[in-house]
Specification:
With 169 residues, the protein is mainly β. It contains one helix and eleven strands, in the order ββββαβββββββ. Helices cover 4% and strands 44% of the residues. The longest helix has 7 residues.
């Protein structure tokens, strides 16, 4: 049986706005959850008679490790990097995440080599990073910088429903 577009197993490289984010450690996960609302009629009690689709919530979690300060600055809101430093300012409250959204591509790594076969890539057209970091200093744990990408419909494409895809786009 042939392999599907995401390959059978293995790690991947995350590319955000055409920039490789660096090595990952742990699970890079793509999650798509369809939200629905149940429809009821009194004579059926609490048994739904239908469900109405209300949209999809898509997120991608990328656990970065050993990334450069410049790579981290690309995905931490309010961050700038300099020579040997990363400066993070307070968040700008009320700023649109969609405006900061860029293309995110997950490329499988097979036998230590990043796939160059676009039909194996997962594309998220408009993804905006949100940091979810707990930097642990101890003798047992490797430091991981979790970044969670929120996905939005691509309103610039002329196809407002376009959100993600496998394969050549």
């Amino acid at each position: 049986m042939p392999k599907g577009p995401p390959r059978d197993l293995g790690p991947c490289e995350a590319i955000f706005d055409s920039v490789a984010l660096g090595p990952t450690f742990g699970d890079v996960s793509f999650n798509s959850v369809e939200e629905t609302i149940a429809v009821f009629e009194s004579h059926f009690g609490k048994t739904p008679v239908d469900e109405i689709r209300m949209g999809k919530v898509i997120s991608v979690t990328v656990p970065l490790t050993r990334s450069s300060l410049a790579q981290l600055a690309d995905v931490i809101t309010g961050a700038t990097s300099g020579v040997g430093s990363l400066l993070v300012d307070a968040l700008d409250v009320g700023v649109s995440m969609y405006d900061a959204a860029k293309e995110l591509i997950l490329k499988p790594i097979v036998n230590g080599v990043v796939s160059t076969t676009a039909s194996e890539w997962l594309y998220v057209y408009k993804a905006a990073p949100k940091e979810d970091m707990a930097i642990i200093y101890n003798e047992d744990s490797q430091r991981v910088f979790n970044v969670i990408f929120a996905s939005f419909p691509d309103q610039t494409s002329g196809q407002a429903s376009r959100q993600w895809a496998f394969g050549t786009v």
